[in-house]
């Protein structure tokens, strides 16, 4: 199986984890490592430990980050050089996580899950406009 580690600034990862649990229940091999400003000194080691532990248990690890170029992303990228089989995705959103968690099987490859995550993340960002029809339809029930 491919393990997942979710990280980001403040409570970004904690909030997404809470939403995932609400919608899809608790997930296997899904670790959360928040980056709080008051714990900046401990964060690199906490993230490295979570990534290394996931790598030991799994056939690969995908680290999901909130923002490219931020501390969580930069620290995750450093771990790609230290731990084999670690990949990093930035710009994580809830539709991405839900899709990749629903898609992941023990046979899924890291690349398949990366492709799924990136596509679902893109499709999850939309702009919707509600239009109002001033002309009631003849079959309108008034609901």
TrEMBL record:
Keywords associated with the record: Cytoplasm, Kinase, Phosphotransferase system, Sugar transport, Transferase, Transport
GO CC, any one term: cytoplasm
GO MF annotation list: kinase activity
InterPro entries associated with the record: Bacterial_PTS_sugar_comp, PTS_EIIA_man-typ, PTS_EIIA_man-typ_sf, PTS_IIA_man
Domain (PTS EIIA type-4): residue spans on this chain: 1-125
Subcellular location: Cytoplasm
A Pfam family matched in the record: EIIA-man
Designated name of the protein: PTS EIIA type-4 domain-containing protein
